[in-house]
Specification:
The protein has 81 residues and is mostly helical. The chain has one domain. The protein is rod-shaped, with a radius of gyration of 25 Å.
Length: 81
């Protein structure tokens, strides 16, 4: 449902920019920008959220690896030290 609202916001934003900066063919540019931003805006938000989730997962993975390696080092130092 959120992507639908983002697409609607993209349509409104693209149409407004097309009317404001359209020049000679305002309506044609407005319609072109409206359809373009209706696709690009939700796609950009989706890609950014996926990148943020991937970075968060990598940080969690790094912390897990660091804790596991510290546990292994402590175990080895107790066993061989």
């Amino acid at each position: 449902m959120g992507m639908v609202f983002l697409a609607l916001a993209g349509v409104i934003l693209g149409f407004a920019f097309g009317i404001k900066f359209g020049g000679e063919f305002k309506i044609q540019r407005a319609l072109m920008l409206a359809t373009l931003t209706a696709v690009i805006l939700p796609l950009a938000i989706l890609i950014l959220s996926e990148i943020i989730q991937a970075v968060a997962f990598l940080r969690l993975f790094e912390a897990t690896v660091a804790m596991a390696s510290a546990a292994i080092l402590v175990s080895w130092s107790e066993k061989y030290g």
